[in-house]
Structure formats: C-alpha cells, structure tokens
Amino acid sequence: MQEKLLAIINSIKKNKFEELLSEITPEQKLREDLNFDSFDLAELTVKIEEEFGVDIFEHGLVNSVNEIFAKL
Predict the structure, then answer these.
(1) Is 64 helix (H, G, I), strand (E, B) or coil?
(2) Contact, 64 vs 32, CB < 8 A?
(3) DSSP at 22
(4) Dist. CA 16–CA 51, nearest whole Å
(5) CA distance 11 to 70
(6) How far, in Å, CA of 14 to CA of 27, rounded?
(7) How do residues 58-72 score in pLDDT, each as one tens digit?
(8) In 3D, which of 14, 30, 10 has the Cα closest to residue 22?
(9) DSSP letter string, 9-65
(10) How many Å apart are CA 67 and CA 54, to the nearest integer?
(11) What is the mean pLDDT of residues 30-57?
(12) How many angstroms separate the CA atoms of 42 and 23, rounded?
C-alpha cells in the first residue's frame, strides 16, 4: 500500500515538474511537506479512489500521509 501511495504522489509531483520522493513517512503533511495545493489534493483523491476504491476526503479533510493510511 505504501509503495502504491508513493507512486501516486510521485505521479502528481512529476506533473508539476517537482523532484520525486524516494520514500514517504506517516508524519509528512500534504500541503506543507509535499507542497500540494487544492488541485493536487483533488488529483490525489481521484487517483486513490481509482486505485483503492476509497474516497479519502468523504468525511472531511485529510492533512497527512498518516491520515491517508488510516482511511485505506
């Protein structure tokens, strides 16, 4: 699951021409640490729902990698 999430995050970062990550940690914040804006979060939601069948933002905001893991 962590590798799939890393691949999804890196696909978004690649589209923004940003440096790809070699790993993710539960403590990382989506906006502050990963530099995601609202458009990136929308793309993240769609890609996670396609891959895992879960809408991570269905019951409110998700702010960290750990919160994504909890929803999956």
Answers:
(1) strand
(2) no
(3) S
(4) 21
(5) 21
(6) 22
(7) 888 899 999 999 999
(8) 10
(9) HHHHHHHTTPPPPS---TT-BTTTTT---HHHHHHHHHHHHHHHS--TTTTS---BH
(10) 13
(11) 95
(12) 21
Could you give the CA distance from residue 13 to residue 18 in angstroms, rounded to a whole number? Answer: 5
Residue 32, amino acid: E
The reported pTM is 0.92
Q: Which two tokens stand for residue 16?
A: 């923004």
Residues belonging to the chain = 72
Gap between the terminal Cα atoms of the chain: 9
**Closest among 66, 71, 63 to 25, alpha carbons compared:** 66
